[in-house]
C-alpha cells in the first residue's frame, strides 16, 4: 500500500452531496411555559407584563424541580419558652420554588395538643403578601363606583410560612417517653427506604421486575418542605422535643437519581446522612442530659451526729463549737463530706431510649487505664480489641446482643468504611448484629481523638468454582 493509498483510507468519508433527507414523523405538546410574542404596535397592558413574569417564573420552577427538593441552608428549629423558633434559610420545594426566609419566625405553641399517636411536622411553605400603593390611571370614574378606590398594591413580597402539619405513627403512644424519638425516627426511615417500592425488599424480591420503565411525571408535587419533627416531652424544660433530622433532607440529588437508588434498594446520600445526623444529635442530647448520680450524705450526717451528742457539747467551749462548725462548712465546700454516690452502672443506649442505630455512626470513647497485674499472675491480654480501645466502655453503650469486633485504622479508612455502610440495614441493639468498632490512630498507633466509629459489618461469602 502506497502512502497516498494509506492517506486516502484514513481520511474521513466525504460529506454526502445533494439535499438533506426529509425529517421523520413528529408530534408536538405544550409545556405550560408561554411567553409574550411582542410586536410593534401592540398596546402593552398588565396582562402582557404578567405573561412576561409568568414565563420567567415557569422556567425557574422547571429548573428548580429538575434539581430536586430539600433544604439548602439555614432553617434551624428550636423551642424556647413555649414558642417555636425557626431561623432564616433557603430551601427548594418539589415544585421547584425557592423558599427563602431572611428573619427569625416564631410560632406560639400554647394549647397545642396531639391526637392519638400524633406528632407534628414542621414545614416551610410559600407565602406572599401585596404591599405598596400606586394610583390607578385612566379609571378614576369607574373605581369609586365599584368601591375599589383609585390605588392598588403594585408589589408582591414572596416569602415563606412556617406551619405545623399533624402526623400519626401507629404505636407511638405505647412507647416510653425516652424511646418515642428513636421509635418515630426508625419508622420514618423505614418508610423512606420503601418509598419507591424497591424490588429487593418488596414481596416480589424473589424475581427480577418485568418492567424497568422510567418514572412517570408527578403531577402532585408538594409545595412545602419539612424541616423538623415536634413532639410533646413532659420531661424537658419547655415541654417539647424537636428532632431535626427525622424530617429534614438537605438538597443533594435530582429526582431521577433518588428514584432509581430507592428502586434498586439503595439508600440516597441525603437519607443516609440524615440517619447518621439524627442519631448523633439525639446521642449528644441524651448523654448531656443524663442526671448526675445522687449525693452521698453519709460523712456529713456522721459529723452532724457527733456534734449533736451531749458529751461532745459539754466537753467543748463555745469557741471550739464555732471552729467545728467552720470546719464542717469547709468540708462541704471542698467535697470531703458530700461526694457523688457510686453510679448504679453505665447506661446502655437502649436505657437512654435509643434502640436502633444507623448503619454507621460515631460514639464517645475514653481509654480505660490498664489494670495493675497481680503479683503472681500473668495478665491475659484482650486480643479482640484494637490497641487503646476500651471494649468494656463500648460494650456498655451497645449492650450484650451485638457481635463486636475491634479494629484500628487511619482516619481515611474510617471515612471509607462509613461510606461503604451506606446501603446496609439499620442496627437493632436487641439482635445479634455484627458491628465493627473502628479506632482512628496516627502513624505511631496512638488514638487521635476521644471517639470511635461503628459500622454494620458486611456479609459476603464467596466460593471459587471447584
Rg from Cα? 34 Å
Overall mean pLDDT stands at 83
What is the CA–CA distance across the termini? 52 Å
Helix amount, in percent?
25-40%
Share of residues in strands: 15-25%
Structural classification: alpha+beta
Total count of helical runs of at least 4 residues: 11
Major sheet description: 4 strands, antiparallel
The strand line-up of the biggest sheet is: 10-7-11-12
> Which word captures the global form?
extended
Would you spell out the secondary-structure blueprint of this structure?
Elements: H1 3-10, H2 46-67, E1 70-74, E2 77-80, E3 83-86, E4 89-92, E5 98-101, E6 105-108, E7 118-131, E8 134-135, H3 142-146, E9 151-152, E10 155-168, H4 180-193, E11 225-232, E12 240-243, H5 255-263, H6 269-288, E13 295-296, H7 298-308, H8 310-314, H9 318-333, E14 339-340, E15 356-357, E16 360-364, H10 391-398, E17 403-409, H11 411-420, E18 427-428, E19 434-440, E20 451-456
Parallel strand pairs: 17-19
Antiparallel strand pairs: 1-4, 2-3, 3-6, 4-5, 7-10, 7-11, 8-9, 11-12, 13-14, 15-18, 16-20, 19-20
Helix pairs in contact: 4-6
Description:
- By secondary structure, this protein is of the alpha+beta class.
- Among the domains are: 72-132 and 143-201 and 222-288, no CATH class; 295-339; 359-372 and 381-456, no CATH class.
- The protein is 27% helix and 22% strand.
- The chain is built from 11 helices and 20 strands.
- The strands form 7 sheets. A 4-stranded antiparallel sheet has the order 10-7-11-12. Strands 16-20-19-17 form a 4-stranded mixed sheet. Strands 1-4-5 form a 3-stranded antiparallel sheet.
- A hairpin with a 5-residue loop joins β4 (89-92) and β5.
- α4 (180-193) packs antiparallel against α6 (269-288).
- The longest helix has 22 residues, at 46-67.
- The chain starts with a helix and ends in a 10-residue tail after the last strand.
Amino acid at each position: 500500500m502506497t502512502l497516498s493509498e494509506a492517506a486516502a483510507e484514513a481520511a474521513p468519508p466525504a460529506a454526502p452531496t445533494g439535499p438533506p433527507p426529509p425529517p421523520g414523523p413528529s408530534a408536538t405538546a405544550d409545556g405550560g411555559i408561554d411567553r409574550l410574542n411582542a410586536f410593534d404596535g401592540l398596546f402593552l397592558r398588565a396582562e402582557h407584563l404578567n405573561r412576561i413574569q409568568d414565563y420567567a417564573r415557569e422556567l425557574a420552577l422547571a429548573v428548580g424541580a429538575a434539581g430536586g427538593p430539600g433544604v439548602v441552608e439555614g432553617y434551624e428549629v428550636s423551642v424556647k419558652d413555649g414558642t417555636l423558633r425557626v431561623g432564616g434559610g433557603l430551601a427548594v420545594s418539589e415544585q421547584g420554588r425557592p423558599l427563602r426566609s431572611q428573619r427569625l419566625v416564631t410560632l406560639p405553641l400554647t394549647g397545642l395538643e396531639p391526637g392519638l399517636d400524633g406528632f407534628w411536622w414542621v414545614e416551610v411553605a410559600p407565602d406572599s403578601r401585596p404591599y405598596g400603593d400606586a394610583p390607578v390611571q385612566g379609571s378614576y370614574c369607574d373605581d369609586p363606583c365599584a368601591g375599589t378606590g383609585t390605588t392598588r398594591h403594585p408589589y408582591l413580597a414572596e416569602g415563606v410560612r412556617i406551619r405545623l402539619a399533624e402526623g400519626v405513627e401507629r404505636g407511638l403512644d405505647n412507647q416510653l417517653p425516652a424511646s418515642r424519638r428513636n421509635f418515630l425516627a426508625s419508622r420514618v426511615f423505614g418508610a423512606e427506604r420503601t418509598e419507591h417500592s424497591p424490588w429487593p425488599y418488596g414481596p416480589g424480591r424473589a424475581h427480577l421486575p418485568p418492567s424497568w420503565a422510567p418514572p412517570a411525571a408527578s403531577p402532585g408535587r408538594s409545595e412545602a418542605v419539612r424541616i423538623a419533627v415536634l413532639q410533646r416531652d413532659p420531661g424537658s424544660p419547655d415541654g417539647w422535643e424537636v428532632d431535626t433530622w427525622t424530617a429534614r433532607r438537605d438538597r443533594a440529588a435530582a429526582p431521577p437519581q433518588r428514584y432509581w437508588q430507592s428502586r434498586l434498594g439503595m439508600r440516597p446520600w441525603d437519607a443516609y446522612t440524615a440517619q447518621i445526623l439524627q442519631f448523633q444529635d439525639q446521642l449528644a442530647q441524651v448523654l448531656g442530659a443524663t442526671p448526675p448520680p445522687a449525693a452521698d450524705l453519709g460523712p456529713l450526717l456522721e459529723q452532724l451526729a457527733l456534734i449533736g451528742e451531749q458529751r461532745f457539747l459539754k466537753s467543748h467551749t463555745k469557741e471550739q463549737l464555732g471552729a467545728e462548725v467552720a470546719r464542717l462548712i469547709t468540708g462541704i465546700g471542698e467535697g470531703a463530706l458530700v461526694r457523688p454516690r457510686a453510679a448504679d452502672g453505665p447506661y446502655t443506649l437502649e436505657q437512654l431510649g435509643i434502640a436502633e442505630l444507623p448503619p454507621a455512626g460515631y460514639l464517645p470513647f475514653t481509654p480505660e487505664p490498664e489494670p495493675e497485674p497481680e503479683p503472681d499472675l500473668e495478665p491475659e491480654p484482650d486480643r479482640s480489641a484494637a490497641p487503646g480501645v476500651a471494649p468494656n466502655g463500648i460494650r456498655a453503650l451497645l449492650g450484650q446482643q451485638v457481635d463486636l469486633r475491634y479494629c484500628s485504622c487511619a482516619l481515611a479508612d474510617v471515612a471509607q468504611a462509613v461510606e461503604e455502610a451506606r446501603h446496609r440495614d439499620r442496627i437493632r441493639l436487641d439482635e445479634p448484629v455484627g458491628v465493627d468498632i473502628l479506632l482512628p490512630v496516627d502513624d505511631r498507633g496512638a488514638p487521635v481523638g476521644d471517639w470511635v466509629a461503628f459500622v454494620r459489618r458486611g456479609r459476603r461469602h464467596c466460593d471459587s468454582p471447584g
